[in-house]
Structures are given as structure tokens and as C-alpha cells.
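S1.2 Input.
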Amino acid sequence: MRYQRAEFPLKLEGRDAARNFFAGCFADTDPTCESLWVAHVDQQARCVHLSRHEGDETGADFPLRSIIADAAAHRSAGIVLAHNHPSGDPTPSEADCRATRRLASAAEALDCVILDHLVFAGTECTSLRRLGLL
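S1.3 Output.
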């Protein structure tokens, strides 16, 4: 797991901004291993904290407690998630959907919203929000 603090007031407002940002994050990772990126944003959609959770060829850990602890520590108004599928299929799995719903329920107690969860596979990207799964 690697944590980074966003150095600039980067805005992750909207799917396209988030997609472009996370595409850059995945460009620096091994495409054969799954990674989960979590961006915490403030009320103006500015990234205030970014974390990466590394996995392997079969999946990445979804550290719900750690994500919620970060949301509380950084007073996040929203969270944007992104992970990759080394298989090349950007379709969210049932496990992806279930974990995201659990996180959304936990975040709600902090008045924090899951803004989107993007699944990358090669050059393709799927948004759980756009699919109506959030």
C-alpha cells in the first residue's frame, strides 16, 4: 500500500476528469496486477488524499476500514475509486459492486459520498455510476 498526498488542488469533478487522472495513475503500475486507487475529495471536488492498494493477478484488497479511516481523517466529502482488471474486461464484477455498496453505506455515516468507481481494462473504462450501480 502506498499513500500520496495530492500536491496540487487537483479537481476530480466529473467522470472524464477522474478517468484522465486515474489513467495516469495506472500508466505507472504493472498492468498484469490489479491495483485499487482511492481519491478523497473535498466539497469542491479537489483531491485532498490519494492512496493505492496493490494486489496481484487475481485481485486487489478492498480495505474498507482503511478507506473509511482516511475519509474521517481528511474530512472527505466524497470518494472516487478506480481499479484495473488485468483480464482486459472492464465489466465490474459482483464482488466489485458488493464492496462498493458496503463502502457507500459506511461512508454515508460520515456524510461522505462515493462519487464513482471506475474499472479500467486496457484502454477501456467502465463507470459504476454511469451503469446505475451507485
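S1.4 Remarks. Residues 116 and 132 are 10 Å apart (CA to CA).
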